[in-house]
Design brief:
By secondary structure, the chain is an alpha/beta fold. Helix content is 32%, strand content 21%. The longest helix is centred in the N-terminal third of the chain and has 22 residues. Bound molecules: flavin-adenine dinucleotide. It holds the Pfam family DAO.
């Protein structure tokens, strides 16, 4: 179908948030108050932090402040791939922290197991389904890189199954696939908005005071405590945890480490039984292709296909703006790629189109830290892979606040910071040239130009 026609009736809003299951907002903060711990941000990062703070110490008085609505940002508009990796994939972790990759992989799987157990404990229904992820090669140069780390993967005891052309097409029927690698245990598919609302309900059940539509405007260190000013009240707290993603940071130093990158997605109408049968997809894995600019796609529980990725857009100036959440040029491109991948679904139309902002950092995986004499902690920089990893980051923040060393806080990955981005306007120039170079590499059999090779040597990059 012509992409423009297929998109004609698509709503301009995130599919997951457009649900009758969305709860009404909790009350705004309207008076001054005190707390043991204030968590700022009602995305996965803040929700996991508040929930696990209460689980660690039920007597702690915890307040969560969210500027808009729980899960409205990246948390409620992502692909719903809940991955074990804490390092934005094995290859990135291996490149940066080879001596601790076995521990990082183990802790990632434990984190995913714990997410599953938490959902059971609180009865959170978010269609969590441990299908794994199917990595597919669609160009000959990608086949080799797909199987690059197979020896190490088996040494680490990870459950990956290499698939040849016929085997991968038997899993998911696309004429574009040349080979695949099914990462079986390291990824679950879920509905991210229902996860966020479920975590909110669990927080409320444990006594966290959740205030939505309560943006923190500024922060002041009062010595033993920190005061957070919101439009209608001040919270004075002994401890503060920031889970504010890529939004203008309350702690100025974070500006240097994260940049806003917009990622876009489409949702189709539900497939008919015949349409689904034409693709197969009996194991319902999440799928990711293997270019530097990649698509990610998956089935929803009512057999729609979420189709996203490819264009990761940095808007010069680095602002976060509502108008950037819609980009017709990208939607048309994505729809075209969908039909190239699944020509048998030429009649399928799209019902939703949206974008969201990612907190990209130069090492692609989150970083952690403390400020104000250890009274404030933060975690940011999940670079498009935070659905699962934010729970690990929340645990790191709570470990740091406790002051007790743990296996997590001993990791070099946790102790080190990413290399900062240069200030604007140099930042825009560097990022746009890097994006152009990445697109060139995809067009030239993955060959990286001098610029990308220089960045690789410095351990720097741009990703989503
Ligand atoms: C289109 C898209 C697809 C993605 N797909 C995947 C995927 O499939 N798998 C995956 O692992 N990751 C994916 N991601 C990334 C993932 O969604 C994020 O890593 C994760 O949601 C980050 O959660 P967070 O809580 O850190 O940030 P956010 O969800 O951005 O939440 C931050 C919250 O802090 C609040 N806030 C900020 N400042 C203040 C303040 N001063 N006062 C009060 N509140 C404040 C904001 O309002 C916001 O609600 C995707 C992201 C996008 C955009």
């Amino acid at each position: 179908m012509d992409p423009l026609k297929a998109l004609a009736d698509a709503e301009r809003k995130p599919y997951w948030l457009d649900s009758p299951a969305r709860p009404g907002p909790t009350p705004r903060l309207t008076a001054n108050t005190t707390a043991d711990l204030v968590v700022v941000g009602g995305g996965f990062s803040g929700l996991w932090t508040a929930l696990m703070a209460k689980e660690r110490d039920p007597s702690l008085d915890v307040v969560l402040l969210e500027g808009r609505r729980i899960g409205w940002a990246a948390t409620g508009r992502n692909g719903g791939f809940c991955m074990a990796t804490l390092t934005h994939g094995l290859a990135n972790g291996l490149e940066r922290w080879p001596e601790e990759i076995d521990r990082l992989e183990r802790m990632g799987v434990e984190n995913l197991d714990e997410i599953e157990r938490t959902l059971d404990r609180y009865g959170v229904d978010c269609s969590f389904d441990r299908t794994g992820e199917l990595h597919v090669a669609t160009e000959p140069w990608q086949v080799e890189s797909l199987n690059e780390h197979l020896d190490l993967i088996s040494e680490l005891g990870l459950d990956y199954v290499p698939l040849d052309r016929d085997q991968v097409r038997a899993e998911v029927g696309s004429p574009t696939y040349l080979a695949g690698l099914w990462e079986r245990s390291g990824c679950a598919m879920l509905d991210p908005a229902r996860l966020a609302w479920g975590l909110r309900a669990a927080c409320l059940r444990l006594g966290v005071r959740v205030h939505e539509r309560t943006p923190v405007r500024s922060m002041r260190d009062d010595g033993g405590t920190i005061s957070l000013r919101t439009p209608y009240g001040v919270v004075t707290a002994r401890r503060v945890a920031l889970g504010t993603g890529v939004f203008p940071p309350l702690l100025r130093r974070l500006r240097h480490f994260v940049v806003p990158v917009y990622d876009y997605a489409l949702m189709t109408e539900p497939l008919t039984a015949d349409q689904l049968a034409s693709v197969g997809w009996h194991n319902r894995q999440g799928v990711g292709d293997s270019g530097n600019r990649f698509h990610y796609y998956r089935l929803s529980d009512d057999n729609r296909i979420l189709w996203g990725g490819y264009d990761a857009v940095y808007y010069n100036g680095g602002l976060v703006k509502a108008e950037y959440e819609q980009r017709d040029e990208t939607f048309v491109k994505l729809a075209g790629h969908f039909y190239d991948t699944f020509p048998q679904l030429a009649d399928v139309r799209f019902t939703h189109r949206w974008g969201g902002v990612i907190d990209t950092c130069s090492r692609f995986s989150a970083f952690y830290g403390q400020a104000h004499g250890g009274r404030l902690v933060y975690a940011a920089g999940y670079t498009g892979m935070g659905v699962g990893a934010t729970r690990f980051g929340a645990n790191v923040m709570l470990d740091l606040l406790s002051g007790e060393p743990t296996e997590r806080t001993g990791l070099r990955m946790v102790r080190e910071k990413p290399i900062p981005f240069p200030p604007e306007p140099v930042r825009s120039g560097v990022i746009q040239f890097t994006r152009w170079s990445i697109a060139q590499a995809d067009q030239h059999e993955g060959r990286r130009n001098l610029w990308l090779r220089a960045l690789d040597r410095m351990g720097l990059g741009f990703d989503s």
